Amino acid sequence: MHHFSAAEVETGLDYPRLVEALATAFRGRAEPTPVRQVYDVGAPEAPGHLLTMPAWERGAALGVKLVTVFPGNAAHGLGAVSSVYLLFDGRTGRPTALIDGEALTNRRTAAASALASRHLSRPDSRTLLLVGTGHVAAHLPAAHRAVRPIERVLVWGRDGDRAASLAGRLDREGFAASPVRDLTAALTEADIVSCATTSTTPLIAGRDIAPGTHIDLVGAYTPAMRECDDRTVLRARVFVDTYAGALAEAGDLLQPMAAGLWSAESICGDLSELASGARPGRLSADEVTLFKSVGTAVEDLAAARLLLGDGRPERQRAAS
């Protein structure tokens, strides 16, 4: 069995190939993928949850991501979320790879946004507004640059120092990056707005979005979280990664639905339909498009298979 560290995942999953791998996986999806299951596994003094995310392609491969969320870990100097991914052979059931789960999640999440952007953002999109300063946010500019000519990145975060630090890192990666304090003003300049936060109150106001903007909502992944307001949803043609996941977990959509302002029938398509051409993406230069992602195990499986097949280190390839 092969073992992949975070560093090996980062080097083995470049965005152009990963976006294509996700497109192929979504086009070829033959059966529904289970929505992640969440189990309460904590103790009174240490609350915690276990999440399981399985996916499979019959006769080829199957895998499961195991995620733990222990909010009290900060008191011990540890992150709240830990994860691993285990890949199995689809013909024999034997394990083939153990992969760092956080690195895999970061890259496949960003690649899914890029896949959606390829269909939904304007082809001439050059300015990306990044809302959020965490690990996933840091990956989004490079992923979007794999499908659009992104040159300029504006970084907004509640912590100005963190926004400045991330902007400096992106500047070293070849972007013209700068931190911004005025989110409203930045929204009017952006071709693509990419949000990766755990906010429970809207950060993006629909009244401030310029015509032709693509909104990429990555972070909020529970019904209680949201990154945009109702007006943003009502202004946009809305797409999701999967119908089942979005309608179970996406607070950005579930909250306006609960208020009677919007309905699930207004979803214009999911990634499978976009990748296969079954549903059209952007229809005009002036329309506002919105992609809501909560994550799906299809993406983990596609990324893990790409890593094992094409991205594994030479020393492992020689030993197999």
UniProtKB/TrEMBL annotation:
Q: Looking at the Swiss-Prot or TrEMBL record, what is one Pfam family this protein matches?
A: OCD_Mu_crystall
Q: Which InterPro entries match?
A: NAD(P)-bd_dom_sf, ODC_Mu_crystall, ODC_N
Q: Which Gene3D superfamilies match?
A: NAD(P)-binding Rossmann-like Domain, ornithine cyclodeaminase, domain 1
Q: Which GO terms describe its cellular component?
A: cytoplasm
Q: Which GO terms describe its biological process?
A: carboxylic acid metabolic process
Q: Which GO terms describe its molecular function?
A: oxidoreductase activity
Q: Which family does it belong to?
A: Belongs to the ornithine cyclodeaminase/mu-crystallin family.
Entry protein name: Ornithine cyclodeaminase family protein
**Organism the protein comes from:** Methylobacterium oryzihabitans
Q: Species lineage, top-down?
A: Bacteria, Pseudomonadati, Pseudomonadota, Alphaproteobacteria, Hyphomicrobiales
